[in-house]
Every structure is written in structure tokens, then in C-alpha cells.
Design brief:
The complex is a heterodimer of chains A (114) and B (113). With 114 residues, chain A is an all-beta fold. Chain A is built from no helices and eleven strands. Chain B is mainly beta and 113 residues long. In chain B, the strands form two sheets. In chain B, strands 2, 4, 5, 9, 10 and 11 form a six-stranded mixed beta sheet that branches. Chain B has a five-stranded antiparallel beta sheet with strand order 1-3-8-7-6, with no helix packed on it. The chains are: A mainly beta (114), B mainly beta (113). Chains A and B meet through strand 4, strand 5, strand 9 and strand 10 of A and strand 5, strand 9 and strand 10 of B.
Chain lengths: 114, 113
């Protein structure tokens, strides 16, 4: 069964450094998402992406964040100048269609900022 | 905005039935999802309701009442492996928020032998 994959599974970085989290969505899916979950808190939407541009972003997704689809398979989240409060689990998700379609989540990248 | 409420914790015994409730207050509505999340893992899709009524899928069923802003997830014949957090999530209104999911805090279910 096709699945969303993410790398790395764990990322430790120093405050102020840049990180790139990578995702490979399900191959026939057209809509891509990033969510984050701070330990013990709820899953929060960051951004949605379709047709090589951002569809929507939340108030969390400020200038520190950017997304890119550099080729036909990868979808990346870049966090510039990381802060301690960026420590969280970051989930990539994809869906075949937008709207009421089911979003399938990847296993996540645990980001720890020291 | 979106506000989704569900109980923080529930416990049940193996073989029992448990119902996890979710209430939502949204500026619009376009469907309600239930996901299962084991500790340290990704949310896994369980069910989706957009119309009123009960959707049954094996041991799991989900119910929706749009007029009451209410849903529940029913788990039958509980197994130890069902111990997990169950997340209620709703879609946004039509337009730019269509794909965005709003999650509740999750209900941590513990199944005892």
C-alpha cells in the first residue's frame, strides 16, 4: 500500500541553524500539507501546497518557514534560524484531491532545537 | 474559527465497547475525520463523516449529527492494541481553508486486560 515517507526521522540542531525536512508524498496525490505537533499538544496545520504554490498557510507559518517541491517526488519544509520553540514533531500529509478527501500522514520528523 | 472538544482520557477493559465523543463549533463545516495516533507515531485515518448518521467499518463506527455539532467514535471488542490517542478533526469551510484540518487535542484511550 502506498505511503507517505519522511526523512530524517530525527533531527537535532542548534538554535539559529537552518533545517530542511523532506517528504515524499503518495505518487498520485496532488495536494500536500505540513502539520506540526509540539509534545503533549494537538496537531496544528502549517501550510498546504498545490500546483507548485502555497494554497493556504496558518499564522504559525511565518517568514521563517518555506516549502518547495524541488522535483517530481519530494516536498520539503525549510525552517530558517530555528528557535527553541520549533522543537516538535513535523508531519507531512498528502491527499489525492482537496476538499473532503482523506489526508494520509507520514511517520513524522522529530525536530529538537538545542 | 474552529473549536473542537473531546475528553482528554478514557479507560476501558479488553472486549468492552467504548464511545469517544467530539463536539465542534466551526464557522463552516465540510466533514469530520477520526484518526488514531499511537505515541510517537503519525495519525492514521480511521473514518470520515460528512452526512448525518452512522458509518460502520469493522470494529470501528463513527456517528455525526451536524445540527448538534456532535460526533462520536465507537470502538467494539476492544483489544490492547487499541490503546492510543484518538483525534477528532474537521475540515474548514469552502474556499481557501478547504483542505486544512483542525484537530482536537485527542482522547487518550487506555485498554486494560
Amino acid at each position: 500500500e502506498p505511503e507517505v515517507t519522511q526523512t530524517p526521522s530525527h533531527q537535532v540542531t542548534q538554535m539559529g541553524q537552518e533545517v530542511i525536512l523532506r517528504c515524499v508524498p503518495i505518487s498520485n496525490h496532488l495536494y500536500f500539507y505540513w502539520y506540526r505537533q509540539i509534545l503533549g499538544q494537538k496537531v496544528e496545520f502549517l501550510v498546504s501546497f498545490y500546483n507548485n504554490e502555497i494554497s493556504e498557510k496558518s499564522e504559525i507559518f511565518d517568514d521563517q518557514f518555506s516549502v518547495e517541491r524541488p522535483d517530481g517526488s519530494n516536498f520539503t519544509l525549510k525552517i530558517r534560524s530555528t528557535k527553541l520553540e520549533d522543537s516538535a514533531m513535523y508531519f507531512c500529509a498528502s491527499s489525492e484531491n482537496e476538499g473532503a478527501d482523506t489526508q494520509y500522514f507520514g511517520p513524522g520528523t522529530r525536530l529538537t532545537v538545542l | 474559527g474552529q473549536n473542537i472538544d473531546q475528553p482528554t482520557e478514557m479507560t476501558a477493559t479488553e472486549g468492552a465497547i467504548v464511545q469517544i465523543n467530539c463536539t465542534y463549533q466551526t464557522s463552516g463545516f465540510n466533514g469530520l475525520f477520526w484518526y488514531q495516533q499511537h505515541a510517537g507515531e503519525a495519525p492514521t485515518f480511521l473514518s470520515y463523516n460528512v452526512l448525518d448518521g452512522l458509518e460502520e467499518k469493522g470494529r470501528f463506527s463513527s456517528f455525526l449529527s451536524r445540527s448538534k455539532g456532535y460526533s462520536y467514535l465507537l470502538l467494539k471488542e476492544l483489544q490492547m492494541k487499541d490503546s492510543a490517542s484518538y483525534l477528532c478533526a474537521s475540515h474548514g469551510v469552502r474556499g481557501s481553508t478547504l483542505g486544512r484540518l483542525y484537530f482536537g487535542r485527542g482522547t487518550q484511550l487506555t485498554v486494560w486486560p
